[in-house]
Amino acid sequence: MRSFLMALAAPLLAGHAFAQGAVQAPAGDYVLDRTHASLEWKGLHNGLAWYSARFTNFDIKLTFNPADVTKSKVTATIDPKSIETDFEKTRPAGNTEDFNAVLANGERYFNAGKFPTITFVSTAVTKTGDRTGRMTGNLTFLGVTKPVTLDVSYIGNRNDPRSQKHKVGFQATGTINKTQWGMAPGGSIADNIKIEINAEMVQK
Amino acid sequence: MKLAGALAGFLLLNGCAFVAERSPETLSSLPAGQYQLEKSHASLIFRVSHLGLSRYTLRFADFDATLDFDPQNPAASRIVARINPMSVRSDHPTDQGWDARIGRDFLQSGSFPDITFTSTGIETTGTYTGRVTGDLALLGVVRPVTLDVVYNGAMPAAALYAGRAAVGFSATARFSRSAFGSTRLAEFVGDEIDVAIEAEFTRP
User: Fold this and answer.
1) ipTM of the shown complex
2) pTM for the structure as a whole
3) What spatial distance separates the first Cα and last Cα of chain A, rounded to whole Å?
4) Is A2-203 assigned to CATH 3.40.50.2300?
């Protein structure tokens, strides 16, 4: 997921630089600033509200090509065991279930014992505006690889005065149908899952 | 579809629905009275610009809300919410004290142990939408904030909540933290706070 953002970010950044005369991020490899990144998902729970959770351990790599941002590449990996629902803080009194572990390891859910890593590898980037783009890539989880497309917005870029490295930031959103990866249909969470990634990337 | 219809019929015959229905009729068929937040099916996420680079994403894991709900006239409803400022979660990858410092230093939890929201006016803006204005008490300052609310669905008798009436909403809001006197680290942290709420309520 973070990879999505990065890939998107690159074309967006270039567009931004041209459009606004901002400093353009240099070509090359960028890595995730994990202290300024989030990967959330929401699924409609019994038709009532969008159940919200996130993965807290993930990584994104971006190879940025400012001369032709559509040639930029993103890869990402997500640890499904890092799912965080805050259930421990919100569960009814007396409930001691480790719901994070149920979702991470349950065979009906992320089945992390068998499928320990979720991956994304970008395959195509298009520009849709000065600050927006679309990134398509192959998302693999539960042993199934399917294409997904994320809408990406470039948020900003700057040279960090301390490290003298460039940073770029993105937001990416998208919707996937969990059943396409073999996750069981039905149940409490509806098939379409909304994803939102917010991430800063720093020059390697 | 026939199977789904038969299942729905079975559930209707039994008086309990598994998935909420989204219709004005379902909403108005709910019993009036006091509804309580289903904490494990609710989320309160907020985002703020970090250095113009990203939409830094946080949430509160401990909050509660009571809804005095008038399904015949939703505009006559009232809602009161309380948020624990020490329940900020940012999933910082290494700094275990990070969230507590946000609670103490940014939200001044020592002086203001509760953030509260008390509705002062509700208007319906469409079949499934409304606007809830209320007093937000933050950092000892009380200012009006308006939530844009979407009604997602309702169940007069929800199977997952032991037959209790249930209703679910999504809401968003934007406000300026400086309006509440918060200017801390303004050179790094933006002024606008974007809030995204998901909430299921049941009638005990």
Assistant:
1) 0.92
2) 0.90
3) 19
4) no
